């Protein structure tokens, strides 16, 4: 009986830890709203952008001002980010892209038993491998650090092309020329590739089913800067047939969720786009 009571207590603790605290969620939304604005905002504008009532917004703002996370501009009664945020964010300021993304990629590598990678989109239309994380167990795909591939090749290339087209920065003729220079293990027609790029733009991640590297399935999602230009790509690589269609979709959604959380923090909110809420919702 005592053991049963202790087990129930453990479950209660786990459930309690998993619950969200409304005031903290609202405070985070308010900070994102202020961070996403070019100028200091008033209470009403912050409340509207954050989706929080004006009275609650004002109370939370007073607390954030007291803690130094938000600064009040007395003359205009508007608010902007405070220096207190630098105090808590300082440990992250000098970290590399790999260090910032690794905590989000590690659980994906473990859950899907896939090698996860981080690629930098270089100005010379190449993608450079910055880092990789391998699953803890089982046979896995291996990549050598500093590997360079054409920026429009495989799932990585589809993700880059989707971001470029979405931002209006990739003319169709340019994409066709870049595509023609890629060596595929299993050839793919340009029209098929183009349709897959459009599908990637619609769902937020791209897939390559063994075309770039025979027998290897890759899934990728791009992180873009404020102008919409793709800067980094996170990807997962596994053996073809290793996952069902449902699990492959879950992998794609996991990568998309990671980019939705990381992109505003690393590159800022894209121009003309509202703050990203927790979990990738806008």
TrEMBL record:
<dbReference type="InterPro" id="IPR036388">
    <property type="entry name" value="WH-like_DNA-bd_sf"/>
</dbReference>
<dbReference type="Pfam" id="PF09339">
    <property type="entry name" value="HTH_IclR"/>
</dbReference>
<keyword id="KW-0805">Transcription regulation</keyword>
<dbReference type="InterPro" id="IPR050707">
    <property type="entry name" value="HTH_MetabolicPath_Reg"/>
</dbReference>
<dbReference type="InterPro" id="IPR014757">
    <property type="entry name" value="Tscrpt_reg_IclR_C"/>
</dbReference>
<protein>
    <submittedName>
        <fullName>IclR family transcriptional regulator</fullName>
    </submittedName>
</protein>
<keyword id="KW-0804">Transcription</keyword>
<feature type="domain" description="HTH iclR-type">
    <location>
        <begin position="21"/>
        <end position="83"/>
    </location>
</feature>
<dbReference type="InterPro" id="IPR029016">
    <property type="entry name" value="GAF-like_dom_sf"/>
</dbReference>
<dbReference type="GO" id="GO:0003700">
    <property type="term" value="F:DNA-binding transcription factor activity"/>
</dbReference>
<dbReference type="InterPro" id="IPR036390">
    <property type="entry name" value="WH_DNA-bd_sf"/>
</dbReference>
<dbReference type="InterPro" id="IPR005471">
    <property type="entry name" value="Tscrpt_reg_IclR_N"/>
</dbReference>
<keyword id="KW-0238">DNA-binding</keyword>
<feature type="domain" description="IclR-ED">
    <location>
        <begin position="84"/>
        <end position="269"/>
    </location>
</feature>
<dbReference type="GO" id="GO:0003677">
    <property type="term" value="F:DNA binding"/>
</dbReference>
<dbReference type="Pfam" id="PF01614">
    <property type="entry name" value="IclR_C"/>
</dbReference>
<dbReference type="GO" id="GO:0045892">
    <property type="term" value="P:negative regulation of DNA-templated transcription"/>
</dbReference>
